[in-house]
Amino acid sequence: MTPKSIRIVLTAVALLGLASFAAAADARISKVAFTRAPATALQGKLVKIAVAAKPARSTRCTLSVTYNDGTVEQLGRTFARLGRATWDWRVPEVAQPGRARLVASCGGAGTVTRSLTVVGTLIPPKIVVADQGFSVRAKTTGSEVSFGLMLQNTSPNADALNVYVLVNFIMADGQAIGTKAESIEAIAAGTTFAYGGSLSFPGAAPVSRLEIVLKIGDRQRRTIHQPLVQSIGIVPGRRDATWVGEVNGEIVNNHPLLNVSRTKLSTVVFDAGGSIVGGGTGYATALLPPGTRQVFAITSGVDAIPWARASRAAVSTFATYTP
């Protein structure tokens, strides 16, 4: 082989090596890139997001957002036509303010991430147990525990929806002997919901404390309207006046336009010192046009509360409105 032939072979080998290196380097680089994404996004506002994908052919792309509290929103799947995919992202009004992460993925082209800051004044709801208490009544066929919880929504401007409440009844040794679970339709922003109930046991109920689990199902900007509750009273039982018979009062529909068709009631009863001694539930079913009222009586759950300890009651509502 001549020197010239050797030089040609070496040059070809070098070029092949460079091409292989470039291909390997290109494989390490994402072929998806954001072409439009803001540094900040406002709660409740529309944001346009765009990415470019290589090679420039029709490929399927997805986009997701992970908010500061770990909540993930999938923004859907679209096709990158001519190498470009776009999304219209409406930032939820109750999105957690702070750092968020966008993740775009386009078929086999790759994945790219970008951080941005969600800005807004709407504070996601948080429910805390402001107070709790219970009473136990032994009956001829077992026992009944009446309990009450004051559940506070600490957000000043976001309603909590479908609030799941699990109550475990715990003995002194830490063992649970009973469980009750229910969902509260809504707890309005900046309010405290009086949640009461009861649980029956076939035998003795040596309950020493309550264990509470709470989970919010959804949220919204504050819009909930509830009727006015007034003239709340407590009366002893008709058959046994040593126990509470009912919590009663009036519901007033103070909505200017809508009728109240049905109202779910929940009560918590306190002693003279302000400690919770139990609670219960009930319904009011009369149709109330705007500006009208009806009497209610809550009897379920309250008959395990000693009459001597019942001093006052709080009542919360969830009303169904109709035109």
Q: Could you say how many structural domains there are in total?
A: 2
Arrangement of strands in the largest sheet: 2-8-7-4-5
Largest sheet: 5 strands, mixed
The string of secondary-structure elements, in order, is HEEEEEEEEEEEEEEEEEEEE
> What's the number of extended β-strand segments?
20
Please tell me how large the radius of gyration is.
31 Å
N- to C-terminal separation?
98 Å
Portion in helices? under 10%
Low-confidence stretches: 6-28
The geometry reads as elongated
Q: Which percent band covers the strand fraction?
A: over 45%
State the secondary-structure class: mainly beta
The number of helical runs is 1
Question: Mean pLDDT across all residues, rounded?
Answer: 90
Explain what you see:
Helices cover 8% and strands 58% of the residues. With 323 residues, the chain is mainly beta. The protein folds into two domains: 31-119, Immunoglobulin-like, CATH 2.60.40.10; 127-322, no CATH class. The model is unreliable at 6-28 (pLDDT under 50).
In a nutshell, what does this entry contain?
This protein is mainly beta and about 325 residues long.
Features:
323 residues; mainly beta; Immunoglobulin-like; 5-stranded mixed β-sheet; 3-stranded antiparallel β-sheet; 1 helix; elongated
Layout of strands and helices, then pairs:
Elements (H helix, E strand, L loop, with lengths): L2 H26 L3 E5 L3 E3 L3 E8 L5 E8 L5 E9 L3 E7 L7 E9 L3 E10 L7 E13 L2 E12 L4 E13 L5 E12 L4 E10 L7 E13 L6 E9 L7 E9 L6 E12 L5 E9 L8 E6 L13 E11 L1
Parallel strand pairs: 2-8
Antiparallel strand pairs: 1-3, 3-6, 4-5, 4-7, 7-8, 9-10, 10-13, 11-12, 11-14, 15-16, 16-19, 17-18, 17-20
